[in-house]
Design a protein that fits this description.
Layout: H1 3-8, E1 12-14, H2 19-37, H3 46-67, E2 70-72, H4 75-84, H5 88-107, H6 113-135
Antiparallel strand pairs: 1-2
C-alpha cells in the first residue's frame, strides 16, 4: 500500500492548494490545544481527551495536505502521506494513535489517565515538529 493507492481509490483527492483552509485548521488546532490543556485528565475524561488530541494532530496533517493540494478522506491515508514525505517515524507514531482512537471510538476500549498523559506529550511533540517543518516555513 502507498499514498497513490489512496488517490486511485478516491480516498485522497488532488485539489488546488488551499492556504485559507490550512490557516483555519491551524487556528482551530491551536485553540483546541489551549482548551484541552486545561481539562483535568482522569478516569472519566481520559478517553475523550485522547481522541481529541488525536483529532488536533490530524488537523495539522490536514493543513499540511491542503498546502500541498490534497484533500484526504481516510485517516489511514495520512499514515501513507507521511511516509511519502519521508516521515516514517512520525507515520508510525501517528498510526499508533489512530489505532488507539479507533479502539476507543469503535470498540469501546478504555485508556488510563496515565497512558493518555504519556500520549499527549508525544502528540504535542509531533504537532510541534510538523508545524515547524511544514507550516511555519509557509508562514502559517
Amino acid at each position: 500500500m502507498n499514498f497513490k493507492n489512496f488517490i486511485e481509490k478516491g480516498q485522497v483527492r488532488k485539489a488546488s492548494k488551499d492556504i485559507q483552509l490550512a490557516k483555519s485548521l491551524i487556528d482551530t488546532a491551536d485553540s483546541d490545544l489551549i482548551f484541552f490543556k486545561k481539562i483535568e485528565i482522569n478516569k472519566i475524561s481520559a478517553r475523550k481527551v485522547m481522541t481529541n488530541y488525536y483529532d488536533i494532530l490530524r488537523s495539522i496533517l490536514e493543513a499540511t495536505a491542503a498546502l500541498e493540494g490534497y484533500k484526504i478522506y481516510s485517516h489511514e491515508a495520512f499514515t501513507y502521506f507521511l511516509i511519502e514525505k519521508n516521515e516514517t517515524l512520525i507515520s508510525q507514531k501517528f498510526d499508533r494513535f489512530r489505532k488507539i482512537r479507533n479502539g476507543i471510538n469503535y470498540y469501546g476500549k478504555n485508556i488510563s489517565p496515565e497512558e493518555t498523559k504519556e500520549n499527549i506529550v508525544e502528540i504535542v511533540k509531533l504537532i510541534n515538529v510538523l508545524k515547524k517543518r511544514y507550516l511555519i516555513k509557509n508562514e502559517l
